[in-house]
Design a protein that fits this description.
By secondary structure, the chain is mainly α. It contains four helices and no strands.
Length: 130
């Protein structure tokens, strides 16, 4: 009986820990997006006239384009690393497969496993037969 209670206790602690990790990941992703924007707004919000963009005709547009660029770069990096999962659109999937087909036609015999065998990495090493 005590074993069952101990296992249930471990299950509850593990579930709470998993939920806490998900919340921390969400906060970290939001911080990754908004901290650079806060820094940019802090620089342009200071009371001095040294920045040439402050008196420029397109200063506001420059600021907003810079902010949008930073957000897009952060989102793309998170998607590249795998922190954000996005469903791939059908047109992008077709384009990616078309590029693979063209690459296979232009570079016959250049498969990833062939490259491993040429480089001598562990994926390409064969066991010596006795």
């Amino acid at each position: 009986m005590t074993d069952h209670v101990a296992h249930l206790n471990e299950l509850v602690v593990t579930t709470v820990g998993h939920a806490n990790n998900n919340a921390n990941l969400t906060l970290a992703l939001l911080g990754t997006i908004f901290l650079p924007l806060t820094w940019i707004a802090g620089i342009y919000g200071m009371n001095f006239d040294e920045l040439p963009e402050l008196h420029w005709k397109y200063g506001y547009g420059y600021f907003y384009l810079l902010s949008i660029g930073v957000v897009l770069l952060a989102l793309l990096l998170m998607m590249f690393v795998g922190l954000i999962k996005v469903k791939e659109p059908a047109w992008l999937r077709r384009l990616r497969h078309a590029c693979k087909r063209v690459r296979r036609r232009l570079l016959p015999g250049r498969r990833p496993h062939d490259l491993h065998m040429r480089l001598g990495t562990p994926a390409g090493r064969r066991k010596k037969s006795a």
